[in-house]
Design brief:
By secondary structure, the chain is of the alpha/beta class. It has 16 helices and 30 strands. The longest helix has 17 residues. The chain binds oxalic acid and manganese (II) ion. Oxalic acid (OXD) binds next to helix 7.
Length: about 575
């Protein structure tokens, strides 16, 4: 197979010359192609068949033990001007980056197959969708891209019609972390990634294209590419709202996107549009509308149980690729938080021994089609996307951030998003549990200078007929003994209920220096039985802690110097003054 698109033909030929594969395979996305790839990987031991009676069409992949998470320190934004990448990114000069990484690509596919993977991010007929082509030597990547994107012939046809696509070159190389780089060239709409087979580093449609390259593209074209879930909620009055939520990796986007209402909240309905990435546009109706550019979920497995997320638990019982989970004696996948079974083999393939740490890697993942989600909704395929009523920003904060507060207007909302922070998780290599600023949950994913990104966010005021209301939430507050104060999961709907009532203009809130907070009477807490002392801590403003917090936010924002939008600095000053 080949293509009528000369640029694509040329690029594949050049890449083959550089990487010297034994075969070239143009992916169609067909079932036969998938079956052949699965067979090949089973033969090579790159996939392990799980119990087909209880987990039909489920397979386990074990990645190299040094290759289990995103590598932010090896991820670069290569713009001509260093300042355009900003203090939020590692930067390398494009010419230097190409030379460095091309030297590693030279001959790296000898004896391997080069797969050409055309894909579309977003519903195939959506004017907001964008296409790309990933060249990879990893059949695991092909199988995952087939689930995570609209991959194959249809995407190729769109590319041939439009003539444009993002170029992503990937090789697992020799998996040596010293020869691992994830390079982005936003001005060329291209990506080069070598030395890792892990999701975020290797499935180039996801973080590399749909966030880093797309955020850059979005700025020049007047839209937003965000690290956000998109959820549809209908309350017992029959009012429907779509909410987008930006939370850092492994902070519960998948759980909130697939939330199941608690039994004590009858009449509520919730459906998933997305659980990791949202592309937001000003729609023809003047509202901010969101599409999910992805077609599947690449979610964190540990903690998934009928109690925490029954939808996800059911969804991953068939047609799922597991990466780095443990296995039971019955050959079923196992992870910490799974309520049945006992692990006998750990994620590395060794006999399980508690002394060696968790059985499943804390960042072990499932890859599944979004259609397997019991809360799937056909609106995920809607070319115009869904209208967004509210945006939630949130992180993992043991202290300081209350359960929920509302920004008083868009400018304040942008300031709240810019200043947000969260404890780091196992989704990226490095220390876990350290509080860091993670503006709009985009610290690892914004393909350009955050100062310009904040200005871009601010620019939506006036462009959108009805701007979403902005809230900050924190499901992760702990008491002094380290116990979570809020039950989370399905009960987060209680907070969403208040958010919707605020959007409808009927719920009460009181003004504080940081924004509008509910009193406990303003929240639907029926059947929850939370002690008053917990509610008090969750909804109280710790002024001393906030004085320290606002100073830290100020120091962080000043890292952006003169490039920081004056309107954001002014908004910061307003909040600081209000705190006294
Ligand atoms: C992810 C991440 O995989 O954010 O979604 O790391
Ligand atoms: Mn993510």
């Amino acid at each position: 197979m080949t293509t009528t698109n000369a640029a694509l033909r040329e690029w594949v030929a050049q890449t083959a010359k550089l990487t010297q594969p034994e075969h070239i395979h143009w992916c169609t996305g067909s079932d036969t192609e998938r079956d052949e790839l699965v067979e090949l990987m089973l033969q090579r031991g790159d996939l392990i068949e799980l119990n087909q009676a209880t987990f039909p069409n489920c397979y386990l992949h074990r990645s190299h033990p040094s290759d289990v998470a995103r590598v932010e320190h090896l991820t670069f934004i290569c713009t001509k001007n260093k300042a355009d990448a900003g203090p939020n990114n590692n930067w390398m000069d494009p010419a230097e980056a190409h030379a460095k990484i091309d030297a590693l690509f030279a001959g790296c596919m000898k004896g391997r197959t080069l797969y050409v993977v055309p894909y579309c991010m977003g519903p195939i007929t959506s004017p907001y969708a964008r296409c790309g082509v990933e060249i990879t030597d990893s059949p695991y990547v092909v199988l995952n891209m087939r689930i995570m994107t609209r991959m194959g012939t249809q995407a190729l046809h769109r590319i041939e019609k439009e003539g444009t696509f993002v170029k992503g070159l990937h090789s697992v190389g020799d998996l040596n972390p010293d020869r691992r780089f994830i390079m982005h060239f936003p001005e060329e709409l291209s990506i080069k990634s070598i030395g890792s087979g892990y999701g975020g580093n290797a499935l180039l449609g996801k973080k590399c294209h749909a966030l880093r390259i797309a955020s850059y593209q979005a700025r020049t074209e007047g839209w937003l590419a965000e690290h956000m879930l998109i959820v549809g909620v209908e309350n017992p009055r029959g009012e429907v709202h779509y909410i987008a939520g930006a939370f850092p990796s492994a902070c519960g986007k998948t759980n909130l996107g697939m939330l199941i209402p608690p039994d004590t909240m009858p009449g509520w309905k919730v459906w998933t549009i997305g659980e990791d990435i949202a592309w937001l546009h000003v729609g023809s109706d003047g509202r901010l509308r969101a599409i999910n550019p992805e077609a599947g979920f690449f979610g964190v497995v540990p903690g998934t149980s009928p109690k925490t997320n029954r939808n996800a638990y059911e969804m991953i019982h068939h047609d799922t690729i597991y990466t780095n989970v443990a296995v039971t004696a019955d050959n079923e996948p196992w992870w910490e938080g799974r309520t049945s079974g006992t692990p006998v083999t750990d994620w590395k393939g060794n006999p399980y021994d508690k002394a060696n740490g968790p059985a499943a890697h804390p960042n072990s993942r499932f890859t599944v089609s979004a259609k397997q989600n019991p809360a799937y909704n056909h609106l995920m395929e809607h070319p115009e996307g869904v209208p967004i009523s509210a945006i939630l920003f949130g992180g993992r904060r043991r202290e300081v951030a209350p359960l929920v507060y509302e920004a008083r207007d868009w400018k304040h909302g942008v300031m709240v998003g810019a200043g947000m922070a969260s404890e780091t998780t196992a989704a990226a290599v490095g220390a876990v549990g350290v509080v860091r600023r993670d503006s709009m949950a985009m610290k690892p994913f914004c393909g350009y200078n955050f100062a310009d990104y904040f200005a871009h966010w601010l620019s939506f005021e006036g462009k959108v007929k009805q701007l979403p209301k902005v809230f900050h939430v924190n499901w992760f507050r702990q008491d002094k003994d380290g116990k979570f104060l809020w039950p989370g999961f399905g009960d987060n709907l209680r907070v969403i209920s208040w958010v919707i009532d605020r959007c409808e203009g009927r719920a009460k809130a009181h003004e504080t220096p940081i924004g509008l907070l509910p009193h406990k009477e303003d929240l639907d807490l029926k059947g929850l039985n939370l002690p008053d002392s917990s509610l008090h801590q969750l909804l109280d403003l710790d002024l001393a802690a906030w004085h320290a917090e606002i100073d830290q936010i100020g120091q962080y924002l000043e890292e952006y110097g003169d490039r920081l939008p004056a309107a954001l600095r002014a908004e910061y000053q307003r909040v600081k003054k209000a705190l006294g």
